[in-house]
Amino acid sequence: VKGSEQICHELARGGVADVFGLLGDGNYRYLPLLSEHGIHFHPSRHEAGAIAMADGYARSTGRIGVCTVTHGPGLTHALSALVEVRKSQSPVLLLGSDTPTWATAYSCQDLDQLGLLDAIGMPSERVRVVGTLARDLARSITHVEDRAEPLAMLIPTDVQDDACEYVPTRIFRPTSRRRPDDEDLAELASLLLTARQPLLLAGRGAVDPDARRSLERLAEIAEMLLGTTALAKGLFAGHPSSLGVVGGFATPAARQIIGQVDLVVGFGARFSPWTTLSGTVFSPDVTLVQVDLEAAAIGRHAPISLGLVADVAETADLLVGRLQRQQANRVGLQSQRDALPRVDFEAQPPFEDVSGDGLVDPRAVVRELDRMLPSERTVCLDGGWHQSLPILGLSCPDARGFVFSQTYQSVGVGIGTAIGAALGRPDRLAVLVMGDGGLSMSIAELATAATCGLPVVVVVINDCAYAAEIEGMKWLGLPADLAYLAELDFAASAVTVGGLGITVRRLSDLDQLRSWCAEPQGLAVVDCKVPCPIDYGRGGEDDWIEHIWHHPRPGRLALNAPP
Ligand SMILES: Cc1ncc(C[n+]2csc(CCOP(=O)(O)OP(=O)(O)O)c2C)c(N)n1
Ligand SMILES: [Mg+2]
Questions:
Q1: With 80 as the cut, is the pLDDT of residue 547 above it?
Q2: Helices 312-326 and 182-194: crossing angle, nearest 10°?
Q3: Which of 100, 153, 358, 545 is deepest in the core (most CB within 10 A)?
Q4: What's the CA gap between 404 and 383, in Å, rounded?
Q5: What is residue 125's three-state secondary structure?
């Protein structure tokens, strides 16, 4: 059996139903065969889009996202999206390729791809002979699923052409959940029993319905407040003890409570500068505990008093059992939940509407969208000054309904993730909020969105600027003229690719989207003409941007490292 066919067999056996990619001689040997194996191929228009599609698919479904690009330029095009995948530890398998094993380093598309992938920290392998291909592929699928981290597998073109006897590989899937150390568990239980106001903080490592149930049960028994990192927004949606997102994207009401807690137990949360605002979001004497599957992640960003290297759901279940057996009550007997002010901590913060003169306030747009769009939605975002809008203004049904693809802060990957989410969760409407700079950078994928077969809404916060850079340049006292852009008509771009284009200069223009929502089909681009720059009422140390883009001020830098 030829290598190209073995690839299809192994993907099908691994349960892969969808593959995202862009054609080239590195993958056209097997892409036409996928459909015979019941696998759908979803083409992108740029390789970064293909990676982002797999990423959005993986995050919105919890399943492995598989993508493929050709070697050389295909891989170099894909890089920024790949770094995002790597930094977010998204379960994405990249099926790369390579020039034939006999090619010289002077072949035109030859490149030290393993070196390149190594430089971005991406685990990667190169298949050497067809005899190991099936096994290598089966291993790589289990690796991505088991470790919940990406992997690149490079398959040279001659290996795809070669043939050998095909022996289907037995696929080994881990079943047991890693248990925490007993002593650590006892210590955590006693911390919980003596805490005055404990907070359970869930991160991306806890984004799973199974883990959510266990964590909510623990919060109930141990009377903990609930919060999430930005990446896990929506995990506790609607829960009465939920404060929503903790950190730079917390609502003002939630932030007040967060500043008072004395114990934070992070489950699959890594206390990044976004979550802690470089250490300033919690009170100075707070105790931090971290539960994470990866030992090296404990204490990476913040000083941790106790670290448990274990499965989050398993740890929560064991804690519940222990607390129940001890029949112990916390000292602060009064339920924290009852003591909370009666406000919706996750509601969009109040703002002064600055709409007028043919421009709309994007916060008003988002508020309207939140009411209008079906609640079964996947909210996706991109990077820029506008980035907080969907986080603070759009609710999502659960954590899989929120795709935060901005760990690397690479502008332009959002559209790919939205298309991947649309394909992965056809029961939910994919909604993307992005800037005019980000969309012009990745505009090729509007065509992909229009033809992917599922509805996608792209809301453009069109301020004719790289607004985030205006703020950054102003901060340094520099003229910001270069950060202003010519006005583009994105509604017209949508029409060009066969989608619906809506230009929004006043809120009533959104009525067209309301009609579209009755029976959503294809691509809808909502081009919102907004003032620039908008003062979102942030600034200084309270601003999330301060903790990501600007260099930390001396004295506060200890916690400032990538999320
Ligand atoms: C790939 C990439 N290029 C450049 C940047 C620098 N950058 C950060 S935000 C930003 C502005 C993005 O403009 P837009 O999408 O319109 O969002 P806005 O800030 O205007 O809301 C730029 C250029 C980046 N983060 N990523
Ligand atoms: Mg802009």
A1: no
A2: 60
A3: 153
A4: 10
A5: strand
Residue with tokens 């690009």: 69
CA-nearest residue for atom 11, ligand 1, is: 466
Burial of 258 (0-12, 13-18, 19+ CB in 10 A): buried
Nearest to 344 by CA among 244, 202, 236: 244
Instruction: Choose the most confident range, by mean pLDDT, from 94-108, 432-446, 534-548.
Output: 432-446
Cα–Cα distance, 255 to 101 (Å, whole number): 57
Asked if pLDDT for residue 58 goes beyond 70, the answer is yes
Cα angle, residue 520 at apex, residues 516 and 521 outer, rounded to 5°: 115
With bands split at pLDDT 50, 70 and 90, how would you rate the model's confidence at 540? low
3-state helix, strand, coil in the chain (%, to 5): 40, 15, 40
Ligand 1, atom 9, residue with closest C-alpha? 384
The ligand 1 atom nearest the CA atom of 440 = 15
Ligand 2 centroid, distance to 561 Cα (angstroms): 26
Of all protein residues, the one whose alpha carbon is nearest to atom 23 of ligand 1 is 466
> Whole-model pTM?
0.95
CB 406 within 8 A of CB 231: no
Please report, for residues 60, 70, 89, 158, 290, the alpha-carbon distance to residue 203 in angstroms, rounded to integers and kept in the order given: 15, 34, 12, 43, 11
Q: With cut-offs at 50, 70 and 90, classify the pLDDT of residue 560.
A: very low
CB 423 within 8 A of CB 449: no
DSSP code string of 263-319: EEEEES----HHHHTTTTSS-TT-EEEEEES-GGGTTSSS--SEEEES-HHHHHHHH
Ligand 1 atom closest to Cα of 80?
1
Cα 468 to ligand 2 centre (Å): 8
The binding-site residues of ligand 1, defined as CB within 6 angstroms of any ligand atom, are 80, 383-386, 409-412, 435-438, 461, 463, 465-469
Distance from residue 534's CA to the centre of ligand 1 (Å): 15
- 113, 95 in Cβ contact below 8 A? no
What is the 470 CA–ligand 2 centroid distance (Å)? Answer: 10
Q: Is 384 exposed, middle or buried (0-12, 13-18, 19+ CB in 10 A)?
A: buried
Q: What pLDDT digit, counting tens, does each position of 452-480 carry? A: 999 999 999 999 999 999 988 988 899 99
What is the Cβ-side half-sphere exposure of residue 294, based on CA atoms within 13 angstroms? Answer: 15
Mutate to test the pocket of ligand 1, among 82, 432, 460, 466 (most ligand atoms within 8 A of CB): 466
